[in-house]
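Researcher: Re-running this chain for the archive, since the previous output was lost when a drive failed. Same request as before.
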Amino acid sequence: MLRVIKHNLGAYFMVLACLDFALIGVCAKLLSKDLPAIEVVFFRNFIAALYLLYLYQKSTLKPREGGHLGLLVFRGVAGVLSLYLLFYNIEHITLGGAYAFQKTAPIFTTLLSFFIFKESVGLRGWGGIFVGFCGVLFIAQPWAEAQFHTGFDIKNSLLGVLCGFLSAVSVTSARQLRHYYTTEKIALAFMIVGSLVPLCSMIVGEFYAPKGLDFLLCEFKIPDLKAWAIIAVMGILGAVYQIHLTKSYGIAKKAGVVAGVSYLDVIFSLILGLFLGDAFPSAMVFAGILGIILGGLILVLDKAKT
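Model: Regenerated structure tokens:
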């Protein structure tokens, strides 16, 4: 067993990263009983920003050219809005369903690369996109009448797809930023923006927070002792997640294989969600989740071969 792990360390650390990320979702689910999703995002990013600031100060990497501040901020805003929607869905639907929607990101990343950067997709790539979108339809079931509908409601389904799209925008922006900034600075900038945006949302929410925009605006609620404990655990998990994720891609022999393993967080979140009281998904929703995973795997593995 140890020999297998030693020869597949990249995949091993990605499995640990997936478990870390799923456990962060568990913390968010527990916190959602008392705190709004936006406030949870704020604490998650603020703690991670402190950790990354510590790492950045200790970094010996030479700074790159810099500039492109607008793109840096844009990437942060897109990423934090994606987290808004992920944590909002964690609060309102099953844990596995929320993570499955977030995993539509590779589909949109491929489409953005095709339309913006004119990258070739190929027959297999279009097949992966088709399978992934079929998975989304199986989960949302827009054709089903109320008495036969076993998926998620239209609002959470649309927000879930938007979560995947914004995540893809953030990832695509990060691709361009790597030419101008080190990875540490990009991550730190993301967490700083990711702390300021929810802070602004909560300030505005003190004066204007309509129910229909509860995924964008909220009032600040003072956490109780139990919530502070969960927030601390979530912060530690966030730091450990960053370590495992960085190690995974840093020592991986094949980045495509590691990216494929990253879909395990959907499986972990589905299992952990059952322990939290989530209902087991219907056959149609389960098929949809598998469709999103399969479509994403086709895309990331196909990209690894090119």
